Amino acid sequence: MLLPNVLFDKNSGDINVTLKLVDVETARITTSISKDDTVNRVRDINTKLFDYLVELYRKDTGEVSNGFVQQRLEKGVGSLKIETNPIGATVIFDNRQHGVTPLQVDDVEEGHHAIILSYEGYERLQKGVVIVADSVITISEVLTKRKGHLQIITEPIGCEVYLDDEYKGNSPLNLQYLDLGSYFLKISHEGFQEEVSKISVQWNKTEIIKRNLSAEPASVAFYSVPKGATVYVDGKSVGKTTNAGLVVNIPDGQHNIQMKLKGYSPVSKTASLSPGDNTSIELQLIKLPDGVSENPNVGWVSVNGWPEDCNVSLAGELLSLPIKYFELHNGRYSLKATKDGYLNQNVSFNVKAQKLTETQFQLKPVDREKSKTRAWLFPGLGHYYAEKPAKGLMWTALEIASLYGAYYFYNDYQNKLSTYDNAHSNYLNSSTHDEIESNKVLYQDAYDKKNISLASLGTMSGIAITVWIWNVFDLNNSIPYVLPFPKGSQFEIGVNEKGELETQIKF
Fold this sequence. Notes:
By secondary structure, the chain is of the alpha+beta class. The protein contains 6 helices and 35 strands.
């Protein structure tokens, strides 16, 4: 009778095996062995036990390994052929990587073995296989793709759900066993704005997607009579009307619409809009009498001036004369009047609430003689005086550049002249033939350079003079000839209280 005793430490893998043969008639131990060893796995103990049994048998019988025992010691080998769909799966055989499928492993010891098949994006497959001696064992496996899941919740419910433009159903929706990776998720519902986003499906995980769709805005075209009214929606300005209308997208619901235009009484209405509406709203404004405003903080200004076709800039607007009852908030203002051929004029005035302020101006023609005098003093000064700053800057810059060039070449000429004088003196003082020839070359070179520098100086000086004169002619042609007083003006000549002759022009 065999009495086995096996001790195994799972942490270190150490084992102690004691095998005893007992005579059942006498109850005495006839043969025994004790072995210490180390294994990686529990099932490896079976392989060790077979070897220990053979050793116990030999010890008890005193026989050499032969017959049945010899056959048991000499294990057979076989082959393993592995195929997968898809091909290219990594094969791990008995914890060692052997390559990728399709694969055949030869000279495999008969018995139980472990196989792991791994492929990117597919679930890992583990299985056991029994190898039979002198045989080819074929394994054919279809790998399963890794999958993930989506749960889609929307407000409102019943939204159409698309993945990569493929309709999947209506929300709320559970999508099971989806291929891993990224998708474009589109959610749509009539009367609501469509939403598109990029999502990711992960392995063995349910991704919860929540979306709240915004209602489709209403498209409203606003018109006013007259045009140019500012449109307010719920107190917020959205633009001004034109002949083609003012088209604005507005959320559904009830809104207060108001239109305002300077000089007209504001007009309001309430509009109820549904999602996706396409509608128009037209309101007619009633003109207020001159000097009347619903705003208690505004007043008016009327402006007369000469020339009547000049440009008037007031409160950020470009106006034409005459200006009648121009509405402004109470405060201090300044208008600027400009016209080619005249000196610009600024006029300051105060506007009082609910009061009319009247003011006037008369532009003075540009004094042509004064402009020319300044132009002769230095290029550009006449243009500045004649209210032509851009041209004045151009002529000033040209003259400064040409004067700098003349100054540069003047200094260069002085240096070249000094070099020439030295070369000429050395040439005249030469005593030998070689000195004469050498100094002659230097003298000729200095002479040529002096003349070139002198020519450059003359050219640049001529340019400076030309610019100086040309700026006067340009100024003269830039100032238009204008009347010094308005058409229809009346002259009055008389003697004032001081006994002086006085002339007045009425227009």
